[in-house]
Amino acid sequence: MAIRVALLGTKFMGKAHSQAYRSVNMFFPGAPQVEMKVVAGRNAKETAQAALSYGWEEASTDWKAVLRRKDIDLVDISTPGNLHYEMVLAAAKAKKHIICEKPLGNNLKEAKAMANAVKKAGVRHFLMHNYRRAPAVALAKRMVEDGRVGKIFHFRARYLQDWAMSPELPLLWRFEKAQSGSGALGDLGSHIIDLAHHLCGPIAQVSAAMETFIQERPVEPGSKTKKKVTVDDAVAMCVRFANGALGTLEATRFALGRKNHNTFEINGSQGSIVFDLENLNNLRYYAADDAADAQGFREIIACTKGAHPYADHWWADGHILGYEHSFTHSVNDFLMAIESGAEIHPDFNDGLRNQQVLDAVERASRSRRWEKVG
Ligand SMILES: NC(=O)c1ccc[n+]([C@@H]2O[C@H](COP(=O)([O-])OP(=O)(O)OC[C@H]3O[C@@H](n4cnc5c(N)ncnc54)[C@H](O)[C@@H]3O)[C@@H](O)[C@H]2O)c1
Prior knowledge:
By secondary structure, this protein is an alpha/beta fold. It has 10 helices and 17 strands.
């Protein structure tokens, strides 16, 4: 069964997802065949160029017309957050399977309606928290499930970047709540909340502090006219998991020198695990039952061998993978789930639970109290 895909959005994620559709059948021959039918953007010239260089058959500047097409099975939404809601509702109504970028909606109300819409339509749905499918993260999940970490006491995650620190940087869509929902919280925080849910289970309560360090930004590059920034630049969260574990999660665009520092540490009764996206082929592990005279963190488990998740589909042992491969793995797993009918996560229900945490974090930052999730 071939799956005919339409992509909405041509830039950062549009390109990352296109790479995944291009590579998936080459490296995962078990996946249904992908037909890259059409890419939609706003600017005709740029979208035509994207179609040509990313390998899409056609370009369109009318995403609504794309969704009306009968020859599309799967719609991939890689646009800013304010468009996810409208696009998901329209795609569900047109009975298309959906991949949506994170966070699911721009607020809890939207996310609830989106989760309901796909359920009602009976279509398959997947949220692109791609980091779950970096081989080292997939190995961490396997180790948690196999009991190699034991009872989890702590989940500690940081997602740090520094690209927003210049006051000259104009008011991009990412700085406007109406377009992005929130700032570092939804952009970076949603990824580590997803990893927390994936590896440690549901977050039940949060306390949090959010801060906007640069309050106004030029409306366009070089302009003297400034407009208010309506999202957070940084957020620090303290969380209680339903299973009793404690967590600390931090997301910021103001950690000078940190470019894409997405890292977590899990401490359990039997072992500890450390992952760092900037060293993404490797996982660090400490085992309580190692011989007493050989105890210590295994500095590197190189997750590039046949024994490791996804790795056997790529190159020989030790021939490392990168950021883009996590998207190929995500697309493969979703295509396989469409074909087999198997469960797949994160889906829009996971996206809704994530959004409930985002909502509780905003409430907690305002109230300065612990807030329940959901
Ligand atoms: N999974 C990840 O690691 C990751 C990384 C970055 C961004 N994201 C998410 O991906 C989404 C897009 O972010 P991005 O960084 O690609 O943004 P971007 O600004 O690079 O690209 C946005 C794209 O949306 C298109 N677009 C905007 N309005 C449109 C419209 N009305 N019709 C059709 N296309 C339209 C733009 O033309 C552009 O191609 C966001 O939800 C973001 O949170 C996810």
